[in-house]
Amino acid sequence: MLLYYKSLPPISKAYGTLCLLTTVGYQLGLYDKLDLALYYPYVFHRFQVWRLITTLFFLGGFSINFGIRLLMIARYGVQLEKGPFDRRTADFLWMMIFGALTLLVLSIIPIFQSFYLGISLVFMLVYVWSREFPSANINIYGLVTLKAFYLPWAMLALDVLFGSPIMQDLLGIIAGHLYYFLTVLHPLAGGKNILKTPTGVKVRIWPAVFADNAGNDQLGTVLISPCYSSWKRKGS
Q1: Where are the bilayer-spanning segments (predicted)?
Q2: Helix or strand or coil: residue 146?
Q3: Which helix (H) or strand (E) holds 199?
């Protein structure tokens, strides 16, 4: 188990670990889950700015659903980071940052209001993975096998079928599609990629990791959009 943990790529490992520790702290009674919730009146009027961060790491208490969300990070996040984002750690981190910012902005809109965005951020990873590996075969809870392209929608349909809340998953789909559109679909149609990974992300955060990627990333100049084409080249 320790060897497996050490083998995980850095961003997926860090995010999964922080999600686990957040839930452990909650289960131990170190804080109430309401202290982690994204509630903008408290953010703006009481300056409880930590809520902008903690909401992204809370996946709920220990439960089957919590375990499933962690497994999603371990599978889909790791496959993305080791596949299309191989040796492009900064770009993967920037995707996560963009997704988090998108979710925080969407949550301001009353119809999209969500107090906990961790599940949405995980579901964004699922959506991006489904677009990068569209032809992979996926078995849904032993019930049905389908192409990965349809995975987010199938899971959303199951939420509706079982009466589970769908807003968190829907937010993840919106954030994931916005990222994929801006970095892949729009550039393929002749548009400009406006989501270039900032130089600061590459050289100021986790410099030891990003230094290893400098040869492939062309530090400070590489666009995120090659994630799709680079994977296609590997798979062709």
Answers
A1: 12-29, 49-71, 92-109, 115-131, 138-158, 170-189
A2: strand
A3: helix 199-203
